[in-house]
Amino acid sequence: MGIKGMTKVYGLFGDPVEHSLSPIMQNTAFQALGLDCVYLPFLVQSKDIGSAVQAVRALHLGGVNLTIPLKERVLPYLDEVEKEAEFIGAVNTIVNRNGRLCGYNTDAPGFLASLKAAGFNPSGKNTVILGAGGAARAVSFALAQGGAAGINILNRSVEKAEKLAQDLKAAYQVPTGVGDLSSDLAAALKGAELLVNATPVGMYPNHTSAPLLTRNQLHQRLLVCDLIYNPLQTRLLEEAEAANCRFLSGVGMLVWQGALAFQLWTGEKPPAALMEEAVLKALKR
Ligand SMILES: NC(=O)c1ccc[n+]([C@@H]2O[C@H](COP(=O)([O-])OP(=O)(O)OC[C@H]3O[C@@H](n4cnc5c(N)ncnc54)[C@H](OP(=O)(O)O)[C@@H]3O)[C@@H](O)[C@H]2O)c1
Questions:
Q1: Strands 126-130 and 100-104
Q2: Strand-pair partners of 66
Q3: Do 109-249 and 8-105+254-284 fall under one CATH topology?
Q4: Mean pLDDT, residues 85-95 taken together
Q5: Dist CA 207 CA 277 (whole Å)
């Protein structure tokens, strides 16, 4: 389908955006449903976020996704921010409703949807998150919302984990723990059923560096989830496989956050399987 005068434009704002898989994923979805829409990458530096958001209004874009380093910085420029995104402190999707820009966070429900697709329900389960950055924030709020019995946040800088635990407790009645990424790991993993790596350790091009933990630290009741999707099989997931744990890559979260953004923009049921297929094809190229 060619671009015409009526074509609705969506996009991604971030820096960098060149390697993003979102254009492939969203354009596959638009085409599959025969929608007259197109999704483009826009390089937006942090200092330009205000004028870029204004451009969404001025250019009548249907909506945009936000990636590093804009997810937190965009909040003051929006007309409305949904409650969950406000709790998390990050917006990854803007919907333009007749010039009124509404911010959402689809990373958190996207993560929950990827767990569900893998047959894992966090309700009543003890969980461990490695990292306390943007992704860890979304995952921890998702787990709290999904009814986790406990959330242990382990980070290199413990103060940042403490801040996240405080924010979490202010929004949800969920028992939280904080600790150091290495010295508190063994205690945190005891009784846990989900381990999530929300650090970039193991991500391309540093995919051969040592994982944050090895097979002898894992037990078989754990689902080990790495939010990294490049490579698909990280060193951490290799350790999980060797320890006979179930494991999950970050592709599911990537696809579902995109699928939920698509749904917000179009009101249509997203073709998630096709979106995943497009992402996997691009990753294997
Ligand atoms: N699958 C998806 O859809 C999806 C979505 C979002 C993010 N992600 C992935 O999630 C990861 C984290 O992203 P983010 O946006 O949360 O990044 P971020 O905000 O920069 O946070 C990074 C976190 O990792 C920790 N960290 C960084 N380097 C480390 C190292 N060498 N050793 C130990 N800890 C280290 C940081 O600890 P300090 O606080 O001590 O610096 C921080 O807690 C990335 O790999 C990203 O690709 C995936």
A1: unpaired
A2: 13
A3: yes
A4: 96
A5: 23
Q: How many residues does the chain have?
A: 285
User: What digits encode the pLDDT tens for the residues 206-231?
Assistant: 999 999 999 999 999 999 999 999 99
Q: Which residues of 48-78 are buried (b: 16+ CB within 10 A; e: fewer)?
A: ebeebbebbeeeebbbbbbbeebbebbbebb
Question: What's the whole-model pTM score?
Answer: 0.95
Domain locations in the chain as residue ranges: 8-105+254-284, 109-249
- Could you tell me the strand order of the sheet in which 37-43 lies? 37-43, 8-14, 63-66, 93-97, 100-104, 80-81
Atom 5 of ligand 1: nearest residue by CA position: 135
DSSP state for residue 192 in the 8-state scheme: -
116 part of the active site: no
- Please provide the CATH number assigned to the domain covering 8-105+254-284: 3.40.50.10860
Cβ-contact 128, 195 below 8 angstroms: yes
Is the previous residue joined to 205 through a cis bond, with omega within 30 degrees of 0? yes
Question: In this structure, are residues 137 and 164 in contact, taking their beta carbons and an 8 Å threshold?
Answer: yes
Calculate how far, in angstroms, residue 133's C-alpha sits from the geometric centre of ligand 1. 6
May I ask the CATH architecture of the domain 109-249? 3-Layer(aba) Sandwich (3.40)
Query: Which residue, by CA, sits nearest to atom 35 of ligand 1?
Result: 199
